[in-house]
């Protein structure tokens, strides 16, 4: 089954005339008939044909709406592809390593679409250190991270997207227990147990 077969079928169902459809598509009437025969290899007859008339069968009538819908979707996709081909589009490669980061991107991406309609974001979700390697090798345009995680990198430009809070569960006898806030740098020499987001029970 291909688009030309579907096109022939839909036009015949509309006009009930093989010759007129052949003229519209600039092919021969036998070629039109051949397309319909190929479709009828689905083991069902789509048209009743005599020397004087053409009539859709019940399966043909059911298939008509589906075939027309398929063709409309194909035409819409072709139209979009042609439109994109005529524009100078660019891909913005963005790396993030968690669902939280992905949610943070929602509003900025909406604004990006409004201000730069020819820029298409490509979101890459991966482990942070893999993303960091991609970024270092110029395979990412933007890396979503905390400022502390890239503090040692002096050749990066850091732009704040949103303030977020991270929480630590601390034992009562920990030296951090009485602190109101803890910075990442405070934890550099501290043994930590981290939870994978999939296994956090809340």
SSE layout:
Blueprint: H1 3-15, H2 18-25, H3 29-39, E1 47-49, E2 54-56, H4 58-86, E3 90-96, H5 99-104, H6 106-115, E4 119-125, H7 128-136, E5 142-143
Parallel strand pairs: 3-4, 3-5
Antiparallel strand pairs: 1-2
Helix pairs in contact: 1-2, 1-3, 1-4, 2-3
Give an overview of the whole structure.
β1 and β2 form a beta hairpin. Among the domains are: 83 residues, Orthogonal Bundle (Arc Repressor Mutant, subunit A); 54 residues. It has 202 residues and is an alpha/beta fold. 43% of the residues lie in helices and 11% in strands. The strands form 2 sheets. Strands 4-3-5 form a 3-stranded parallel β-sheet. The chain has a two-stranded antiparallel ribbon with strand order 1-2. It is built from 7 helices and 5 strands; from the N terminus they run αααββαβααβαβ. The chain is elongated. It starts with a helix and ends in a 59-residue tail after the last strand. The mean pLDDT is 81. Keywords: DNA-binding, Transcription, Transcription regulation. GO terms for molecular function: DNA-binding transcription factor activity; transcription cis-regulatory region binding. This is Transcriptional regulator, LysR family. Belongs to the LysR transcriptional regulatory family. InterPro entries: LysR_HTH_N, WH-like_DNA-bd_sf, WH_DNA-bd_sf.
